[in-house]
């Protein structure tokens, strides 16, 4: 259901954390996914396959630094920025 994972994404899990929160922020990617409870700050490391099964929904998509920098540029300078980045 949720295949494209990025650091900084906030997801809703199927089961609540003991503190009562359903929302977690992705803090580590790899074979294991690291998530942090948005309410109490507890960090949990779980296998990617289990994470994919237990995610119910994407609450908030993170914006990468490169996307944010490109969006902040004026329209005319985006082409110049892409040319510089590709060289």
Describe the structure.
- This protein has helices spanning 48-54, 65-72, 75-86, and strands spanning 10-13, 23-28, 32-37, 43-47, 55-60.
- The protein has 87 residues and is an alpha+beta fold.
- The chain has a domain at 10-62.
- Strands 4-3-2-1-5 form a five-stranded antiparallel sheet, with helices on one face.
- The N and C termini lie far apart (36 Å).
- Mean pLDDT is 79; it is low at 65-73.
Summarize this structure briefly.
With 87 residues, the chain is of the alpha+beta class. It has helices at residues 48-54, 65-72, 75-86, and strands at 10-13, 23-28, 32-37, 43-47, 55-60.
What integer value in Å does the Rg equal?
16 Å
CA-to-CA gap between the ends? 36 Å
The coarse silhouette is globular
Helix/strand-derived class?
alpha+beta
What is the strand arrangement across the widest sheet? 4-3-2-1-5
Please provide the count of β strands: 5
Strand count, sense and barrel status of the largest sheet are: 5 strands, antiparallel
Average pLDDT rating: 79
Classify the beta-strand content into a percent band: 25-35%
Instruction: Figure out the total of helices.
Output: 3
Extract low-pLDDT stretches. 65-73
Helix percent reads 25-40%
What string gives the helices and strands in order? EEEEHEHH
